[in-house]
Amino acid sequence: MTETVLHDIISVYVHERGKLKMKLKIVWRKVFDYVRYDLKDIAFPSSLPDPPHFKKRRKLTLKERYLVLKEASRIYAASWVRDIGPELRPNEHKKKREIEGELYEENGNRKEKEPSTLDDLAVAARGGMEILRPALQRVYMTRASAYKDALKGFIKGYQEGIQQTMEKKEDLKSSKDTDTSNSKGPT
After folding, report:
1. Beta bridge pairs of residue 104
2. What pLDDT, on a 0 to 100 scale, did the predictor assign at position 105?
3. Which domain of life is it from (predicted)?
4. In degrees rounded to 5, what are phi and psi of residue 110?
5. pTM, whole model, 2 decimals?
6. 134 vs 80, 113, 117, 124, 137, CA distance in Å?
7. pLDDT in tens, 95-122
8. DSSP 8-state assignment for residue 51
9. By C-alpha distance, which of 47, 53, 92, 89 is closest to 71?
10. DSSP assignment, residue 83?
11. What is d(CA 28, CA 36) in angstroms, rounded to the nearest whole number?
12. What is the C-alpha separation between 77 and 31, in angstroms, rounded?
């Protein structure tokens, strides 16, 4: 009888141990799936799923990450410099020559075109507030002088127009006076 009881206890223990092992596997799989799928969506939510045609880019290698970080750091450090030069435009040497940027005279001498106001402001904006403020002041002063010149021209033209109108009125009056004096004549 003791053998059967001992056998029953061992079989129950093994059976319960197997159930426990199975339960641990199930719990482990559920935790793993939660971390793998659900936690990613909770921590980094996406408003919309990626479209079907979207292809994910491959992950960068350690060397490529280092090169990207190095280039970004170089450009960031160069942006703190007051004088903006070619170091902020790393791919400028790859651009093809702009035909409109280089004008040639008949004798072959090179004559460069002045940069536009928009180009000046774009370069100044990259340089920070210290460089942007004088550029904006130049733009405002240029516009103010243009408006001032236009207003002076308008006033001058307006005064000339008034003067011409007054002269025409005087001519008409004088011609009417002469006509009326001639018609009254000796009667």
Report:
1. 110
2. 47
3. Eukaryota
4. -85, 130
5. 0.32
6. 17, 22, 12, 9, 5
7. 544 544 554 444 455 555 666 777 777 7
8. P
9. 89
10. S
11. 12
12. 45
